[in-house]
């Protein structure tokens, strides 16, 4: 049984990358792999319990000072030498760097890392990827847009880069009329149009523009925002200042976001930057039409005019106009848009198909690299 270790900064707070790592870990375990998830920091919280229950090993390095904490490096190198995973697969920059450089002390057969965003970050991040690129066997990107962004900054070479998207389990994320009725009854909604936004309350999600857009849409619109983050108190104040207390609900961290997607009439994404937005994939799988900002990565999920509408970034007027347009579409047409959204997600991003591709990539790299090495193999 081959052993794959998935490294990530942490799973205490769940975003798109974290959800994808958990899905990948559990899916690979079901397919017979031995799987471990290694968090750089935190305790793992509920995610650690979920992973353990699924037969996935969980380890936290307990790092408290970022990459400058030597104890984390020591713990990881000791663990790698003891457990000898055949594949070390890192997600997000800090995890990628610690995985790459640790291979010098603990040789590996395969080291892979995944790019989850179109943002190439600071000069320090770009240099970090360039200087450590020789240690990786393969770099994957969740979207073509993320791949192009990192190629253009020379953070990865074309020979080592593969586009491999996020996946969604369509047997779980699906329309459910009974869940819709239950949630709407709980909220006291009848004919109101329920918009759902999901994602960390962080500047990149640009919730101020979404709140400003809500002022411009018909009074029948309601908005629920699922997510926690550093801007929560500021956004609640802004909502009050805009007179939206009755129309906007902040759900905080929502462990069962699926039922909200099943209850909503439309999904809205106001981000300034994305890689391949998990919220949009999950909404599509639940049959929700969407309005989303036209940032790199989003058009790979949303087909403008077919499964929803793309709109200008940072423009509350344009966003509000597109949301109003969606609300004015006849219900049967919105339903058809939602059906097309689910069909697209299942055709391009089904979890089983994505797991097939990961297994094929791991298998190919293991075949090419039969023995542990301290640096990446050339293709």
Characterization of this structure:
The chain contains 14 helices and 13 strands. α8 links the parallel β8 (193-198) and β9 (221-226). 43% of the residues lie in helices and 17% in strands. The strands form two sheets. The chain has a seven-stranded parallel β-sheet, sandwiched between helices. Strands 10-9-8-11-12-13 form a six-stranded parallel β-sheet, sandwiched between helices. With 379 residues, it is of the alpha/beta class. The chain is elongated, with a radius of gyration of 21 Å.
What can be said about this structure in brief?
The protein has 379 residues and is of the alpha/beta class.
Radius of gyration: 21 Å
| Total of domains | 2
What is the 3D form?
A: elongated
CATH architecture descriptor of the largest domain? 3-Layer(aba) Sandwich
Q: Which CATH first-tier class of the largest domain would you pick?
A: Alpha Beta
Do you know the CATH topology of the largest domain? Answer: Rossmann fold
Order of helices and strands: EHEHEHEHEHEHEHEHEHEHEHEEHHH
Q: What's the tally of helices?
A: 14
Mean pLDDT across the residues is 93
Low-confidence stretches: none
End-to-end Cα distance: 25 Å
Strand content range: 15-25%
- What structural class is derived from the secondary structure elements? alpha/beta
The number of E-state strands comes to 13
Largest sheet: 7 strands, parallel
By CATH, the superfamily of the largest domain comes out as: Glycogen Phosphorylase B
**Widest sheet, order of strands:** 3-2-1-4-5-6-7
Helix content: 40-55%
């Amino acid at each position: 049984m081959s052993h794959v270790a998935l490294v990530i900064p942490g799973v205490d707070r769940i975003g798109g990358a974290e959800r994808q790592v958990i899905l990948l870990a559990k899916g690979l375990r079901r397919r017979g792999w031995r799987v471990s998830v290694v968090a750089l920091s935190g305790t793992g919280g509920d995610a650690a319990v979920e992973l353990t229950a699924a037969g996935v090993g969980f380890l936290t390095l307990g790092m408290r000072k970022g990459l400058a904490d030597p104890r984390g490096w020591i713990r990881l190198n000791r663990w790698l030498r003891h457990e000898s995973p055949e594949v070390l697969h890192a997600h997000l920059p800090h995890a990628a760097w610690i995985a790459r450089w640790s291979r010098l002390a603990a040789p590996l057969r395969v080291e892979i890392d995944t790019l989850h965003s179109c943002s190439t970050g600071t000069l320090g991040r770009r240099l970090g990827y360039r200087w450590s690129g020789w240690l990786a066997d393969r770099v994957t990107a969740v979207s073509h847009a993320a791949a192009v962004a990192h190629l253009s900054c020379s953070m990865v070479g074309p020979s080592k880069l593969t586009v491999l998207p996020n996946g969604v389990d369509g047997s779980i994320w699906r329309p459910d009329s009974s869940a819709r009725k239950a949630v709407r009854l709980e909220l006291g909604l009848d004919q109101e149009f329920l918009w759902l936004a999901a994602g960390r309350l962080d500047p990149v999600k640009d919730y101020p523009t979404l709140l400003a857009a809500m002022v411009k849409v018909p009074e029948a619109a309601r908005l629920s925002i699922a997510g926690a983050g550093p801007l929560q108190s500021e956004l609640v104040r802004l909502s009050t200042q805009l007179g939206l207390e009755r129309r906007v609900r902040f759900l905080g961290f929502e462990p069962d976001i699926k039922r909200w997607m099943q209850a909503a009439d439309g999904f809205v994404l106001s981000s300034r930057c994305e890689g391949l937005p998990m919220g949009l994939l999950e909404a599509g799988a639940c049959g929700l039409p969407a309005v989303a900002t036209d940032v790199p990565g989003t058009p790979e999920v949303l087909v403008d005019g077919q499964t929803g509408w793309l709109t200008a970034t940072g423009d509350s007027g344009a966003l509000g106009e597109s949301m109003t347009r969606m609300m004015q579409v006849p219900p049967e047409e919105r339903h058809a848009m939602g059906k097309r959204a689910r069909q697209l997600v299942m055709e391009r991003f089904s979890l089983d198909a994505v797991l097939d591709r990961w297994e094929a990539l791991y298998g190919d790299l293991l075949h090419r690299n039969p023995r542990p090495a301290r640096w990446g193999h050339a293709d």
